TrEMBL record:
UniProt record, GO biological process: DNA damage response
GO cellular component assignments: nucleoplasm; protein phosphatase 4 complex
SUPFAM superfamilies tied to this protein: ARM repeat, PH domain-like
Name this protein carries in UniProt: SMEK homolog 1
Amino acid sequence: MTDTRRRVKVYTLNEDRQWDDRGTGHVSSGYVERLKGMSLLVRAESDGSLLLESKINPNTAYQKQQDTLIVWSEAENYDLALSFQEKAGCDEIWEKICQVQGKDPSVDITQDLVDESEEERFDDMSSPGLELPSCELSRLEEIAELVASSLPSPLRREKLALALENEGYIKKLLELFHVCEDLENIEGLHHLYEIIKGIFLLNRTALFEVMFSEECIMDVIGCLEYDPALSQPRKHREFLTKTAKFKEVIPISDPELKQKIHQTYRVQYIQDMVLPTPSVFEENMLSTLHSFIFFNKVEIVGMLQEDEKFLTDLFAQLTDEATDEEKRQELVNFLKEFCAFSQTLQPQNRDAFFKTLSNMGILPALEVILGMDDTQVRSAATDIFSYLVEYNPSMVREFVMQEAQQNDDDILLINLIIEHMICDTDPELGGAVQLMGLLRTLVDPENMLATANKTEKTEFLGFFYKHCMHVLTAPLLANTTEDKPSKDDFQTAQLLALVLELLTFCVEHHTYHIKNYIINKDILRRVLVLMASKHAFLALCALRFKRKIIGLKDEFYNRYIMKSFLFEPVVKAFLNNGSRYNLMNSAIIEMFEFIRVEDIKSLTAHVIENYWKALEDVDYVQTFKGLKLRFEQQRERQDNPKLDSMRSILRNHRYRRDARTLEDEEEMWFNTDEDDMEDGEAVVSPSDKTKNDDDIMDPISKFMERKKLKESEEKEVLLKTNLSGRQSPSFKLSLSSGTKTNLTSQSPAANLPGSPGSPGSPGSPGSPGSVPKSTSQTAAITTKGGLVGLVDYPDDDEDDDEDEDKEDTLLLSKKAKFES
């Protein structure tokens, strides 16, 4: 058997009962060793890869539809279809399938679609065919009952469909419809409604082709007007012939294309308006109707794309200044409908569609249309532009950048879009919201391409900030020249909120471009003027913009904020809000809380130094007191740099561990360090402060080794230690003969045998009150009659500091009792 190669598209039916295009290739049939049988093979025309390899099973039901389609099911929920370019190719492959299954190629289906029950199998053997009653007026009720009784059974449904096909029965029924209408036989018309509805549910393409033919379709719609459930018949035919008008904005020369457009419109109307909404059980019975419409649409779009004269005339008339306004509106509406029509296509078909439009010059045409005064035309052009941006934003960006080399900024396509957004006359700004979404898509780096030679992000953002950003921010800058907005009506506030939303998006997703623009143009100061707006939503948009900038924790932004005192409008809005517990109050507190929690030192100092007097009385949250504490800790570190150095060393040693063991070691530290450090520690003399920083590292590196001492060793150390050696977990108290009390930290190596100053080493003094030497550097702070922590880890919470003070006081009193 020789292979015959034909051009086809491969489709699969998805869960939504829509056909997905799997690619275009050439089909052949041949024996496949792996599948042990004759199979259908489709190889992609682009690269020769295998799109389909399907064995022709003897029991699989194959359907031939519309002369160029073959449909079948591979599994329970996996339907396939081959759409042939030529009828001859479809016929040849159909013959191969029928030959394998031993069927006559004249049939349109090779097997029963659903396995019938044993009882039906027996019935099938005893009654080979279904005999229809003669098509007479008096037997309409009998025919309606026969159709209704056949629908539940797949086998009877199949027999009924074959009988209707073979006897030309549908045309006879439609002749009876004319007789009933002439005689005003309402009962007969009700029976015909039930019969035609039942024929739809048979789900057969061959029957649809008869019913949707030019001579029959209006009569079929007529039958469906007489629903027995309605008191008065519908007037669908009147609507289709008198109300619905087919406008050829550009003459269509191909009669087949014109007929296909009429047919698709009417069938879509039947599906959407005429047929009752199918029940759950009937829904799958109309799958062939969905497929019929789908493939018709694919065919129409394909035929229009191939008609270059049609599209050339369309775009020529769109951009021609001589075209009158009514004609141009019709042309734009047609193009909008054409683009909307393409959304039902599969990705590959949609790609081809938009590439064709791009090659025909749709973007330059849109630019001309958007510059016109007619609002309806501009609105339709905006919808078309949105289809293009959603389909391929890179194509739009490339066009705009090329255009900038030839035209002024004022007439750039993207600036026209921004101007339409700013000048939207709708009180609710519906069009402006849509355009803002399109601009957001265009400036979103996530959908920008990067190649080896160029980066679209760098090029386009450089272009946008140079040529377009000043147009976007113009209404903002114009409205914020004083201490409060010069215009504060609702529509202006809505527009500025949209502009701020886009600028906030830019702050989050762009880097140096937006940073340079904000700092050079002093944008944040202007934005914060809007905090004085009477519209809360606009003031919150301004606050959100600043919060996004602070959230970046960028010192360039922070220095700009401090230099220009840009917390002042926020603090003023906070104080003006008073004690009201609302979104403004919470949002401002959250911003200051973020600064505190993230410990942004520069902003913390700036806020406390400049605004503490205004905020110190706010006590219903601890945010501002926490900021003050942060500030004081910060000042303390600046005044005692050596103390801060010791903290950082201990903190790094204590916390910077292998990530895999961090939690275990941290838990072990808090569970064991108090016991490990309780006894046997040496007292460190304040004179050891003068030692070099290098002396610290060796004992610090051994800091954690104390955990390895066994309990027996700890007891032994305890027995050898004199009274002056008793210590707290992290501090050593030593009473001298004077009135001062010194609080000094341990040497981490103090417990190690043989280390200087450890009990049992040769240099260890034995008398109370003596102070042994240590190799570690410490920072001792001395106060008169007071107690000061030597190593104060920078805890975030004020409560921890208070606990440490209490602990130190308790230890001091115990020590004094011991010494006395």
